[in-house]
Amino acid sequence: MPRRKTLSDEAVLQAALALLHERGPEALTFENLARSCGLSGSTLVQRFGSKAALKQAALLRAWDGLDERTAALAAAVPRNPAGAIALLVGLSDYGEIEAYAEGLLVLREDLRDPLLRARGARWRAALAEALDACFVDTATAPADIGLLMASQWQGSLLWWSFDPVGDVAEHVQHSLVRFVAVLLAGERGRR
C-alpha cells in the first residue's frame, strides 16, 4: 500500500519558491528543499524527478499565482484609466530593492525555459486585455493601450530599481498617471 503524502505538492512548491526568492535559483536543491519542508530528499526526487523538473514546477506554480492575482485585481478595479493604474500598482508590491533584485534572478530562470516563457507570454496577453478593458469608454485611447501601459509599468519598475528612492508602488503610480495623461492628451490632439 502506498504511503500517504505528509506534505502536499502545493506546500512543497511554495517552500521551493521561498528558497528561490530568498537565496536564488542555485539554492534550490533537493537537499535544501528537504531541510526547508521536512521531507526526505529521496521523497522529493520521487515526486519531481529532477532538479530541473522541480524548478519548472515551482515556477509554473508562481505563474499560476500571478494569473490568479492579476484576475482578482482586474475584477476589483473600476473600468476606467484610474482602474488600470490601480491594477498595475497592485501588482507592484515588490518591497525593497533586494526583493526586487532576487525576483529578477528568478525571472532569468523563466526566460531560459520555453514552457515558462510561453506562460509569461500568456500572462502578458491577459494583463493587456484587462488593461484594455479599463479604456473601453475612453474614445481617445489607442487600440493597444493595455500593452503600452504594461510596457510603461515594466520600464518604471526597472528605472526605480536603479535608484530605489521611495516606495516602488508610489513610483509606479506617479509614472503611470503621467503616462496616461500624456497619452490621452496626445491622442485627443491627433483627432
TrEMBL record:
Chain residues forming the annotated DNA-binding region: 29-48
Keyword DNA-binding attached: yes
InterPro entries membership: Homeodomain-like_sf, HTH-type_TetR-like_transc_reg, HTH_TetR
Keyword Membrane: no
Domain HTH tetR-type: 6-66
Pfam families for the chain: TetR_N
SUPFAM superfamilies for this protein: Homeodomain-like
PANTHER family: HTH-TYPE TRANSCRIPTIONAL REGULATOR BETI, HTH-TYPE TRANSCRIPTIONAL REGULATOR RUTR
Protein known as: TetR family transcriptional regulator
Native organism taxonomy: Bacteria, Pseudomonadati, Pseudomonadota, Alphaproteobacteria, Hyphomicrobiales
